Each structure stands twice: as structure tokens, then as C-alpha cells.
Amino acid sequence: KGELRMQSLTFDDAGMYQCIAENTHGIIYANAELKIVASPPTFELNPMKKKILAAKGGRVIIECKPKAAPKPKFSWSKGTELLVNGSRIHIWDDGSLEIINITKLDEGRYTCFAENNRGKANSTGVLEMTEATRITLAPLNVDVTVGENATMQCIASHDPTLDLTFIWSLNGFVIDFEKEHEHYERNVMV
């Protein structure tokens, strides 16, 4: 096929490669440069979020995406405690940390450590728990005669530190109240 495969690359493999194809009608050349990339982990371009919010009883994924070559090994800590995979905590291969069934005890400073053969780095963020949003009054089924008006209610409880937005949809499509103002009307009760 004219393929060149290289394994276990080193810096000595870097350079300009040339493929030459030849037959009785002539010869043709193609060039390509191979760069070998190696760098210690750095969070300069993609630091961890400084503040991470998670709903009580829910699940959160905290991303850890440093630039590094080769791919680093990851570890996590909460405060001074080193974290290991368990029933509620999982460290993914890509470095992300997943926590399920969030409780108040999960709040705190989380640090991701990344290390490869070129060096190491870390980045820290603070996890805060919020009260889960819940629908306290769901819309009810309504039978209406053609031409009449219908009103549907939806009431929800939420963490007071966060804003709440209601989105209505019809058969899976979000209703655009600006475009359909002649047919739909949104009443927000405080």
C-alpha cells in the first residue's frame, strides 16, 4: 500500500519524510513533516472551574483536561485526602472525576493531579452543593372544547441562590413565546 508505520517513536524520528512512487511512466514525490510532541502537563489553557455546582442527591462530573504529551496519569484529592474509585466516586481514564448521590459532605476543594514523564501539574476547584430543583405542581391533563382557552400550571422549588427558568414544549418541541405570542401566553407568578 505504500504505508510507513512507526512504533514507539522517539525524538530521533522527527524530520521530513519523503515518499517516492515510481513506475515505467515516471516518478513522483510527496513530502511530509513528522513532529514529535512532548510536554509536561499544564493547565494554563484549560484550568479547572474554580466553582463547581452540584445538586443534592444528583451527580457531578468535574473535568480535568491539562495539555500534556504523552497522556498523563491522573489522581485526585479532596482537601488533603487522596481519592480512590469506590461506590460513589469514579476517576475516568480521561482524568474526569465523577461523584454520585451528592451530599453536603462532598462539598470542598478538589484538586486534580496530572503527571507524565516530562513533569507534573495540578489544578483546584471548589464543589458546592445546591438544593435540587423539583416540580411541586405539575401540569394536569386538560379537556377543552375547540375555540376555548386553556391554562396549565407548573410550580417548582429550587435553590434560592440560583435562577429558575421554565421551558414549555409541545410534543417535544420547545414553544417560542415570542414567535407564537398570538397563540400562547406565559404568565410568571412570583
Automatic annotation (TrEMBL):
InterPro entries: Ig-like_dom, Ig-like_dom_sf, Ig-like_fold, Ig_I-set, Ig_sub, Ig_sub2, Striated_Muscle_Regulatory. Keywords: Disulfide bond, Glycoprotein, Immunoglobulin domain, Membrane, Repeat. Its main location: membrane. Residues 41-128 form the Ig-like domain. It comes from the Eukaryota. It is found in: Membrane. One of its GO terms (cellular component) is membrane. SMART domains: IG (SM00409), IGc2 (SM00408). PANTHER family: CONTACTIN-1 (PTHR13817:SF77), TITIN (PTHR13817). This is CNTN1 protein. The lineage of its organism: Eukaryota, Metazoa, Chordata, Craniata, Vertebrata.
